[in-house]
Queue: 2 jobs
Job 1
Amino acid sequence: MEMTSIRLTLGEQAVRLAHRARETAEVAEKNGRADPDFIAQLREIGSVTGPSSHVGNHYPLRDVLELIKMVARGDGSAGWLAMIYLTSAVGGHWLGDAGRDEVLADGVRTLVAGVLAPRGRANTVQDGFYLSGQWPFGSGSADADWMGLGAVIDDEPERTGVFFIPRAEIKTLPTWQVVGLRATASNDQVVEGVFVPASRVAYLDGPNLTGEAIANFPIFGLLAAGIGAVAVGIAEAAVGEVVELSGAKTPTGSNRRLVDRAAAQEAVARAHAGLESAWHYLDRAVAVTEIANRSDKVRLRLAATNAMETSRHVVDSLYSLAGGSSIYERSPMQRLLRDIHTASQHMMVGQPTWELTGRVLLGLETDPPGL
């Protein structure tokens, strides 16, 4: 009954989360950590992509991405955290019953984060592994209950797994001194010889153990789609800021308001068209019930990367249009610029994706790793 109630109010949750994110964005950035009330609200839908046996029925992925976009419109860091928490629990589909029972003991309220890159080393022992390593870009680590950390097993590069560790067993290094997305607290995570039972290791290169549709999306494509949603939300916020600013601002050296200038009118129109197109492309790419063939995988990665690139161009152009007032810390435009450029550095939506998908489209590779 509780799960049904949550499902019916997803749109309301999105509005509430976006509002709280906007209200607390400035303080969260200064603190380098998300607002506690925002995190508490996010827990109500936290592990929504996890196994339905533990989190209830899934929302359509399109609805989850819409929520992420709305939250990012309120604040880029909050949107990024929503993306991390709402998608990371998908790894639970590769855990057996005992592992799911332990990691998702609190059901949908569990917050899972992680770093899939196999930067750790796992040595096999009886009933499990000893894990050590250091993982940068640990987004969401500050408030996560569990983290899934990628590692190479027994120094054999072809053997990798994602090891689920309680947050209390992980050391955080204060490395997140960055230009944007500061409130994500994406610090380095360190594990030193921690025992991980075999039941808490997910092998993402094998078949998932639930067969549920959400787990049949390619894991990299799911992550890329979430990042694309964050990007579009940030860019939509920039459009809103410029629309509000343009009616009140008269640029230096001009006797006309910004809203009356042809350059502003054209820039806002182009921004709307670009973002609507990018979002429609991404929405169509994730509308497929089960992405299994190469064409669907390519479309998903292209749509997410296009959403990022389009959003970055929109924010860049509107930041320039806003003029000198946009450089001050009191202007949301400077934070939007910093956030979108930080997000755009993620490898899932960066320039290499164009090369990866281009090779497939040109027939040079059939189904390369990383797609």
Note: The domain at 217-361 is CATH 1.20.140.10 (Butyryl-CoA Dehydrogenase, subunit A; domain 3).
Job 2
Amino acid sequence: MSLQPPAQGQLSADGRWWWDGSRWVPRTPALPAGAMPYAAAPPNNGTAVASLVIGILSWFMCPIVGGVLAVVLGHVARGQIRRTGEGGGGFALAGLILGYSHLAVYGFVLIVWLMLLGGMAAMVGILGTLPAVSPSP
């Protein structure tokens, strides 16, 4: 039996311990070649997911309210994600993009609609002030 300590990096007979140069340390199982260790992703922020879902639904129902809610929830979620380090930044950004684009499209359609109706009202006003033409001489 030898009183000399084992060489640094030597494994125990059962392979569960290795000598680090001063003490025996439990050996962690080695990964196969090329394998990456599994790292759990942080949980997604629920407000970010809600922003995305409402942003999608705003295109089909509740146009103005849905767009505004998607924008508000997206900004709130981005603040929470910055503060807590949660995941879901892409969901919040997608909800913001959907909400803002929906509000822009809805605003454009509203302006065109008002101009069309305003133009028709102006035409009726102009035609109403013209003297009536009588068919008889």
Note: The chain has a mean pLDDT of 82.
